[in-house]
Task: inverse folding
């Protein structure tokens, strides 16, 4: 088999590989991953590494009874991040760079583009970007929550050809292989639906990582809708990486969409979080699909949450059906004011002067959800 025809690949490595015993970083499982990265680069493939592990790497520096404290977990991340970066740096004879992100960096369009430009520039200078969520400063409102989904967002931002997600098992099974001897692994997944999510089960039970198989499926769905080949492989065995380098599939391969989403639509749907909601009448769905500018205050029956001009909002029917995510050209305060006016003529004249409520060029259809 020949080396895969990748120009750019993102590989996600979890905490269990970085610090399997929560006693600091270990290179035991990382050597084969580092060798994979070296061989990819030698074959002209650019690599972006998304590496969890800062909290697990710093855990041994704190008392056990303190570790449930949020402030202590942030301190663990701060202490462990330097050790994790140092461990990776020792495994390479080329420079690496640290990029720490929160979801706020990705859901804001301008910052999202800035992240892409930084990754591109590092790769153009043959520097390995090593990306992690900034657990030291992130909050529930700002965090992605797991590096599986972060890796898919990074792969989309970086316009990668492939995303490789390392797991503790060989791939996606039709049932939990730790509990069922007759579990069968799926080598190829052509589309992701509820039956695929049902196979994923719950979160990881080992207490080391923050994700499980479900977050990996979520990440795969984000990536393949952007046209990115996605693999879930066993990161604990060197064979997985050797097979990939030989052009073979060592785990589960998720086939990318034949017609990937447009880049701005993909970002709106899979990366940007809705900061509020606009509820419209049920019979408005058809017109919204055809022309975003047809959304006027006369169709709005409610506004929920607080949002500013330029924020992403969710537009849904009054029966709860999600229609679109879109960029709002109005603040929630102003939109509430206009929608409550008794005079429809006032609202029409105002919108004619200020433009549509949502931007047609930044709209992602959600009606199939």
Result:
């Amino acid at each position: 088999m020949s080396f895969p025809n990748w120009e750019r690949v993102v590989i996600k490595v979890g905490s269990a590989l970085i610090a399997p015993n929560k006693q600091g970083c270990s290179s035991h499982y990382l050597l084969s991953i580092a060798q994979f990265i070296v061989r990819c680069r030698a074959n002209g493939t650019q690599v972006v590494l998304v590496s969890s592990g800062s909290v697990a790497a710093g855990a041994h520096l704190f008392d056990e009874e303190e570790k449930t404290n949020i402030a202590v977990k942030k301190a663990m991340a701060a202490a462990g991040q330097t050790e994790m970066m140092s461990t990776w740096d020792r495994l390479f004879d080329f420079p690496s760079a640290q990029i720490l992100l929160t979801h706020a960096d990705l859901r804001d369009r301008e910052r999202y583009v800035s992240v892409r430009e930084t990754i591109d520039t590092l790769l153009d200078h043959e520097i390995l970007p090593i990306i992690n969520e900034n657990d030291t400063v992130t909050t529930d409102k700002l965090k992605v929550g797991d590096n599986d989904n972060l890796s898919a967002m990074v792969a989309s931002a970086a316009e990668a050809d492939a995303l490789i997600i390392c797991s503790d098992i060989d791939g996606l099974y039709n049932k939990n292989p730790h509990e069922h001897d007759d579990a069968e692994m799926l080598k190829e997944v052509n589309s992701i639906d509820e039956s695929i999510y049902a196979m994923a089960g719950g979160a990881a039970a080992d207490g080391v990582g923050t994700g499980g198989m479900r977050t990996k499926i979520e990440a795969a769905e984000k990536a393949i809708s952007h046209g990115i080949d996605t693999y879930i492989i066993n990161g604990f065995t060197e064979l997985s990486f050797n097979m990939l380098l030989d052009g073979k599939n060592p785990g589960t391969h998720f086939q990318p969409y034949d017609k990937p989403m447009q880049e701005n639509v993909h970002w709106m749907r899979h990366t940007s979080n809705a900061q509020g909601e606009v509820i419209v009448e049920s019979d408005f769905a058809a017109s919204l699909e055809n022309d975003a500018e047809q959304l006027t205050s006369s169709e709005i029956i409610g506004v929920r949450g607080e949002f500013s001009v330029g924020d992403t909002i969710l537009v849904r029917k009054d029966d709860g059906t999600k229609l679109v995510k879109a960029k709002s050209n109005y603040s929630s305060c102003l939109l509430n004011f206009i929608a409550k006016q008794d005079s429809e003529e006032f609202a029409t004249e105002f919108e004619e002067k200020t433009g549509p409520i949502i931007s047609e060029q930044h709209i992602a259809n959600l009606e199939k959800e």
